[in-house]
Structures are given as C-alpha cells and as structure tokens.
Amino acid sequence: MNKNITMPRKHSALQLVGLLFSTIGLLVFLAALFGYNFTDKFLWLTFSLLAVFLGIVLVSIHTNLILPGVISQHGMYYRSLSNRGVLGWIVGIVLSVFYIVLYWFPESLGFYGNTQPNSGFVALFDPLSYFFKNEPASQWFMYGSLYTLLILAFGIRYLFRYKHNRYQIFRTLAVMAAQLFLAFLIPEILEGLNSKDAYYARDIKFFWPLNHYFFEPWHLNNMVSGGSMGMVFLIWGIFGFLVIVPLLTYFWGKRWYCSWVCGCGALAETAGDYFRHLSDKRVFAWQIERILIHGVLLVITVVTGVVLYGYFSNAQTFLGLSIYTYFSKPYGFLIGSVFAGVVGVGFYPFMGSRVWCRFGCPLAAYMGIIQRFFSRYRITTNGGQCMSCGNCSTYCEMGIDVRAYAQKGQNIVRASCVGCGICSEVCPRGVLKLENGSLYERIKSTID
Amino acid sequence: MGKHIVIIGNGISGITAARHIRKLSDYAITVISSETHHFYSRPALMYLFMGDMTFENLKPYEDGFWKKNKITLVRDHVQAIDTLQKQLILSETSPIHYDELIIATGSLSNKFGWPGQDLEGVCGFYSMQDLEYIEKHVPRMNRAVIVGGGLIGIELAEMLLTRHKNITFLVRENAYWSNVLPLEESEMINDLVRSHHIDLKLKVELKSIQGDEHGHVQSVETSTGEILPCEFVGLTAGVRPNIEFVKNTPIETDRGILVDEFLETNIPGIYAIGDCVQHRKAPPLRRPVEQVWYTGRMMGETVAHSICGSKKAYNPGIWFNSAKFFDLEYQTYGRVLPEPAPEEAVFFWKHPEMLMSLRLVFNKSTYNLLGVNVFGIRLRQEVCQKWIQTKTHIAEVIDHFHEANFDPEFFNRHETRIKLAFKEFYSNIR
Ligand SMILES: Cc1cc2nc3c(=O)[nH]c(=O)nc-3n(C[C@H](O)[C@H](O)[C@H](O)COP(=O)(O)OP(=O)(O)OC[C@H]3O[C@@H](n4cnc5c(N)ncnc54)[C@H](O)[C@@H]3O)c2cc1C
Ligand code: SF4
Ligand code: SF4
Fold first, then answer.
1. Which fold has domain A375-436?
2. For ligand 2, is residue A431 a contact (CB within 6 Å)?
3. What confidence score (pLDDT) does residue A244 get?
4. I need a labelling partner for A5 at 20 to 30 A (CA). Which of A298, A444, B96, B238 fits?
C-alpha cells in the first residue's frame, strides 16, 4: 500500500533557508567541477563548505529539535530518498559515478597527478591543502575533506535526532571526533610536519586488513624510511591488529571499532542513517554475507602472505605470477575500490548503509569471529515482552533479523552486529539492551 | 502421521500453536484464516500506517517458512463448525475435515449500537482491512474523532497525527485509561496527549454519529450535547472475543470460548486459545479474559502440548504488560490497581521535570512487593518478576533497584533519587 502514500511534511522557514544554503554550496561545487576557475579559491571554498554544512544542520535542527517528541522512523517508507524512489536513485547514481571518477578518472575532477597544476573541483581545495602541508590538493585530499565535512554535518543531524539517547550521543560524538582528528586533522598535520617523508597511512585506527596496503613493500619501505615516526606507525599497526583489536573486541564487541571510531562506520551511521532500513533481512542474504565477508578475509590474508613473501625474499613473482599484477592490484581494484567505494557508499540508497561493512570488510570479518565466539558483548532480550513488531529487524543496518531472536527470548550474539544500538532505540517495548557480561550463558533463551 | 489438526486464525496464538505442534509431532497441520494469507504482527499495524515499515517487515517469518515446516495455509473464512461430522464449512472452498480443532479467532472491536456507527468513515481499528479503510479515508479527513480511552485509541491518535490531522479524543473516564492506571499516571498521559495538540475530552461519551446525504460521517454528538464536525470516527472502545460463529454450536461460550487449564473446550478434541478465550478458572491473580499478545503466544504453546500428548496446564506466571504512549514507554508487573486494595500500600515516585515515574505496590503488613508500574525507565522483567514471586521486602527491592535497570548504556540513572525519596517515605510509614 505504501507506494502511493505521501506523508505531507510542513517545511519551516528555517528549513527552507537550510535547503537554500546547501543548494548554493553545491552550486559552487558544480561550477568548479565544470571548470569555472574561481579567482579567490580560499573564499569560495570556505563559503561553499560552510554553506553545505550549515544547510544540513539547519534542516535537521527544525525536524529534530523544534518539533515535540522524538521523530523516530515515521515516514521512512513514504519518502522518495529513503524508499528507493526517484530521489534515492538519483543520489545512488550520482554517488556511484562520483566514486568511479574519483578512483579512475581523477582528471575529470581536475587532478592530473604531478604533471600539471590542479583545475576544477580539486583545485578548489588547494588553499586548504596548502594550509596543512604547503602543497596542492590531491583528489584524495579533496575526498577526505568532503568526507569529514559530511560526517560532521550529518553527525550533528544525528545528534539532534537521537537527542534522548545517550548511547547514541556518545557514540556519535566519538565517531565524529575520530574522523575529524584521527582520520583527517592529525594525519594531514603530521604529513605537513614531515613533508619530505614519502606517504604512509598516518591514521592510527586504520588497521590491516581494512588498510589492505599496510604490508605492501612500498608502504613498509615508506614507514621504515620515515624515521622514528614511521617506525612508531609500523609497530603500532602490527600491535594494533594482533593485540588491541582482539582485546577490545573481547571486552566490548566489535562495536568499539565499527560504530565508535571507524571512518566507514562513521559515514554509514551519520549520512547513512536515511538508508539503514534498506538492508536485506532474508536468511539468503545472511548466507551470501558469510561467504563473501569471510572470503574477502581469506583473500586478503593470502594476498598479504604472498606480498610479504615477496618482500622478504625479494621476489617479484610467486609461483611464476607477478605479485603486483596478480595479487596486490586486483585486490586493490576489486575490493579496495569497487567494493568499498563504489558499492559500499554508492549503493547506500539501494542496499542500505553498511553494504561494505556487512559483506566486504575483512577487519569486520576478523572482529566478527572474535565477537561471535569469544566476547563479552551480547544484546540481551527482556523476557517475554517482544510482540514481534519487526522494528528492530527493519532498522538493523546489518540486516540481522533481530526479531527472530527477540521473539524467542533469546540473546543476540551475531558476528555482524556493529553495536549501533538502533534496534534497542526503535524497539517500542524496550526489549533489547546492548550489554557486556560474562561468557557463561551468553546465548540463553527464556521462551522456546 | 495420522491426525489432521486444523487451526482457525493465523494470529500469534494460532501460529504459535502450529509451530509447536510441528516441533512436537508430524501431524498434518492446516491453518485457515481470512484476514491475510500470512501471519503478521498485529501490534505493528500502526507502524505500517506511519511509514516505519512495509507489510514485508511486519511478517515474523519468511514466506518459505510454512512450506518448509509443512504447515498448510488456507485463506478462507470459516462460516460454521460441524462438530458431529468434524468439519468446517468455508466461504469459498469445500468443507475441511479435522481430527482436532483449535479456535484462535482473536477479537472484534466493540461497537455499542451507537446511532450512525455504520456510516461511511466510521470504523474500529483491529485488522488489516480496518487499516486499509482508515488509509482510504485519510485524504478527505480534516478532523477525526476517536472514541474510547484505551491503548488502541491512543495509537490511532498517534497515527493520524503523523498525517497532520486534527484529533478529538473522547474518553468516558475522568482521566485517560483510568480503569487501569492509577490517577497520577493517568494524568501524566492526559498532559502528554494534550502536548501533542490533541483535543482530549474527559468524562465525555459518544451519543450518536450524523451523516451527510452520501452516507458519509459529518459530525458526532457527545453526551454533553456538543456537536463536533468531523470526517472520520475511530471506534476504539475495547475489543471482545470474536466468537459469533461458535455461538450456535455445542461449544460452550460466555464472554469468550470457555476452556479448561489445558485449553480444551467442553467438546473433546476442540481447543481454543488467544484473545477469543475465557478461562473457566483463571490462573492465580490473572483475569479470565486476557487479550494481549504474549498470552496468545503462551496459550499456543500450551495447546500444542495438550494435543501432542505432553499435557501441561496453562501457567502464564506473574502478570506483565508494556505499551508506549507516543514516546513514553510503560511497563507493569504483578498487580497494580487504579486504587490500592485495603491490604496494599504504595510508594510512588515521579521525576521532578521529566516524564518518568515509578509505583511500587506492596503488602501493608508484610511489606512484600506486589506490583510495579513504571514510565520512562526500562526495567528487567526477570528481576521484577523474581521480586514479586519470592515476596521480596520493599526495602530490599529499593536497595537492589539498580539490578532491575534495563535502559541502554550511559542513560541517566535515577536510583539515587528514588532511594532518597524512598528513605523519607519509609521512615514516615514505619
Ligand atoms: C492495534 C492493536 C494494537 C495492539 N497492540 C498490542 C500490544 O502492544 N501488546 C499486546 O500485548 N497486545 C496488543 N494488541 C493485542 C494483540 O494484538 C492481540 O492480543 C493478539 O493479536 C491476539 O492474537 P490472536 O492470535 O488470539 O488473534 P488475532 O491476532 O486476532 O488473529 C485471529 C485471526 O483469525 C481470523 N479469523 C477470525 N475468525 C475467523 C473465521 N471465522 N475464519 C477464518 N479466519 C478467522 C482473523 O481474521 C484474524 O486474522 C493489539 C491489538 C491491536 C488491534
Ligand atoms: S543488531 Fe542492533 S546493535 Fe547490532 S547492528 Fe543490528 S541494529 Fe545495530
Ligand atoms: S522491536 Fe522490540 S518488540 Fe518489536 S520485534 Fe523487535 S524486540 Fe520485539
């Protein structure tokens, strides 16, 4: 019945101003994209970033702060954007195209490597890049800045929206701070301070195997040649994935990473909040998920093993196959770019906000195994209160059929749960609670 | 193999019965129901209307579940039961024979013979068809009048608010749901309802409904003589067991279908479960007719055992229930009466600013906990029930109150305030 229903929304003056701001900001982006050369780039960049940011914040202030009560999820299935309508398709296609261009045709964005000066859209970000590290922007710098901006703006929206829920507030502040400081500011500043060092990932939470190039020879070499700072990052990276990740996952489940600090998670939780219900809940999807995500973990482990073999034995080939052409490159292309980028974000409006996290991310797979078998984290079910309404399953971005457990009075212990806490938030009967506790009787059932 | 079990009604009770019979046996199972082909969650109808979910989301089991578990679904209406021939007369298809029968037909919305109750634009809110009917009337609706201050009425009000309708809410009692809630809580809900700009009229009843020349509702007249123009009337003055078609059979009924503790009717091999049931002997501290979701589920499980030869008496344990009024969550455990019984005393705490309250009912002389009402805080069912079951002293309950908290992590906790308030209260009554 829902396709024909529209849920009228009264727009306030504040919201219209917000929409206007965002539109103007986007128009500046578009003008730059189509080659308009702004003379005062600093001014126009500041202006457009601020306009987009303020626009998003203003729209959400109204819907989520001024109206009485909690807005919750009403109308999600009536809106074009969040119900795979025309708007949803437009956004999905624009995002996917953006990622394709970003990865493979950066020159259309105005970035030509080091061969000629930036123009167009990337050039717009030159002033910010000069500010941090005294060099022109790259397409990745532009992307990182925009990404951070979106997380901050939609993060503020999220804070308004879930203002009554302190778990959501703390989690969102953490994820916003992690993106702003750990993923953006600190690495850029460090790069600026050590501008002579070659590039290596300076985001301290970007662990292997999510960072699939960590053990690539060039990356190892850059870290080794990066002085004591490089060595710190090298040791931290190995220690992190061997000790910190399993330890924290044992105590708090993978949520400490996926919905508290991770950058992919940050975008999914903030900007992706419109789309979380579009995840597929069928058992069939769960089967695909298990094959895919563990497959990716296996592949990156093999690829990394081969790469390290090559590194230490100084070989370019493995079993007669070029390591770069047959191992590193296809993984980077298929998983790192197509899966994590184009599908991972571009498909938000079609498949929900966690496509990558659910089906692809090898770090999530690794933590998921720990979470499933050896972690204090679980979602507890409150006795027989569940009335099988389905809100929890619908809004689980990981496509977990939470209801299937809750209606049996069974705790939810699932490898894929990122601990976003939304199932607990939307449950109208207060049935679900994210908890850490003893491993004894972690999966118990009170009903049948 | 052997027996053919037929279940009328694919609600929570009928479906739970089917699932458990399948777990316990390989009998042939047929579920006949007329409302929808597949089982869905009735309490979630409001979320379908408000656009939180689609119908797919309302179904607790995937469509393939039924075939996989060899449960035959028939979408048809049962006209009559022939208890001699052991067969059901259906509207569309030929009669179906049963060896054992489970009646799980749920409830119907009450209509008290108001003049005009059958006009176009007047309906109850119980089924999918009701929801479609309401949806059909949304476009021409400006003001809706909702009659009856219970849980379904307030849900309907919340639903129509999301479509920006003006709402008048007629409540017979002096405060919302005050035949169940104590006055303090009732009044809290009154304020909440009014804060959503709903015109709440207390101590006002519906007298009649007037239509225009096309038979569409035009206005209602209230017991105070006021005429309220409106385009829609929602009749939500409670539900009653849906047993019309059972009444001219030898199956004994009163308000509901009468059953024993194994949920069998007076006719051997015919059982009844869920909303349509009246217990001949109500379980301890429970009422004979209890029309809630989980009792239907529990009866479904019990009846499966009765049928599969592992009989156990229906034992729903300590009463509990929960609901949500707009954003305000409510839970109750044990016995909380609108007015305390003579042997009862009450500790009541209300947050000074927020919508939040706690009521603990206990025995005046032994001080053991009898019931809990809580608004705005989530409590752990297991802990509350254990306290009531083991007759825990009220002071000990307060001492350990944090153990019952079920709010999400990092939520503001209120135990300290509650403990302080209790200390003062307790020193006064001792
Ligand atoms: C709007 C609403 C909100 C509610 N919210 C809550 C809540 O939050 N918590 C709670 O505990 N309870 C709630 N309830 C009550 C709860 O839904 C019922 O207690 C429960 O659904 C009863 O289940 P049942 O299986 O006994 O009957 P039903 O769910 O009514 O199922 C009976 C089915 O049998 C079919 N049927 C009837 N007669 C025939 C026939 N002759 N032939 C074929 N089919 C037939 C009916 O069409 C119906 O589909 C709510 C009820 C409503 C209406
Ligand atoms: S199960 Fe709940 S906490 Fe876990 S991912 Fe799904 S919605 Fe989030
Ligand atoms: S949202 Fe709550 S009541 Fe609804 S199915 Fe999930 S756990 Fe049950």
1. Alpha-Beta Plaits (3.30.70)
2. no
3. 97
4. B238
Q: What fold is seen in the domain B4-108+240-307?
A: FAD/NAD(P)-binding domain (3.50.50)
Query: What are the angstrom distances between the C-alpha of A225 and each of A196, A203, A222, B225?
Result: 11, 18, 5, 90
B397 touches B387 (CB < 8 A): yes
Tell me how far apart the terminal alpha carbons of chain B are, to the nearest angstrom. Answer: 65
- Residue B22 Cα, gap to closest chain A Cα (Å): 13
User: Could you identify the atom of ligand 2 that is nearest to the CA of residue A424?
Assistant: 2
Residues A101-114: pLDDT tens digits?
A: 999 999 999 999 87
Each residue's pLDDT tens digit, A293-338 = 999 999 999 999 999 999 999 999 999 999 999 999 999 999 999 9
Q: What are phi and psi of A360, to 5 degrees?
A: -125, -35
Pick the CATH number of B122-237 from 3.30.1330.10, 1.10.760.10, 3.50.50.60, 1.10.340.30: 3.50.50.60
- What is the end-to-end Cα distance of chain A in Å, rounded? 34
Closest-approach residue (CA) in chain B for A430: B378
One fold for B4-108+240-307 and B320-429: no
State whether the beta carbon of B185 lies less than 6 angstroms from ligand 1: no
Half-sphere exposure of A30 (CA within 13 A, CB side): 8
- What residue ranges of chain A are covered by domains with CATH 3.30.70.20? 375-436
Alpha-carbon distance of B278 to B243, in angstroms, equals 11
Query: Which A positions 63-122 lie with beta carbon below 8 A of chain B?
Result: 68-70, 72-79
- The pairing of strands A377-381 and B122-124 is unpaired
Question: Cα separation of A448 and A382, whole Å?
Answer: 14
User: Looking at the whole model, is its pTM more than 0.90?
Assistant: yes
Omega of the bond leading into A187 within 30 degrees of 0 (cis): no
Q: What is the ipTM of this complex?
A: 0.96
Backbone angles phi, psi at B42, to 5 degrees: -60, -45
Q: How far apart are CA A203 and CA A207, in angstroms?
A: 9
Q: Which of B54, B52, B58, B49 shows the shortest CA–CA distance to B141? A: B49
Neighbouring residues of B75: CB distance < 8 A, sequence distance ≥ 6: B32, B33, B34, B36, B37
Of A239, A211, A237, residue with least CA distance to A300:
A211
Is B277:B241 a contact under the CB 8 Å cutoff? Answer: yes
* φ, ψ of residue B409 in degrees (nearest 5): -55, 150
Looking up tokens 């990473």, which residue turns up?
A: A257
- Beta bridge partners, B325, equal B328
Question: CA A313 → CA A64, A70, A217, A308, A329, distances in Å?
Answer: 59, 61, 12, 8, 20
Q: Is B292 in the pocket of ligand 1 (CB under 6 A)?
A: yes
Distance (Å) of CA A60 to CA A72, A112, A156, A364, B289: 13, 37, 8, 31, 46
Are A25 and A52 contacting, i.e. CB atoms less than 8 angstroms apart? yes
Secondary structure class of B264 (helix, strand, coil): strand
Write the pLDDT tens digit of every residue in A4-24: 676 666 678 888 999 999 999
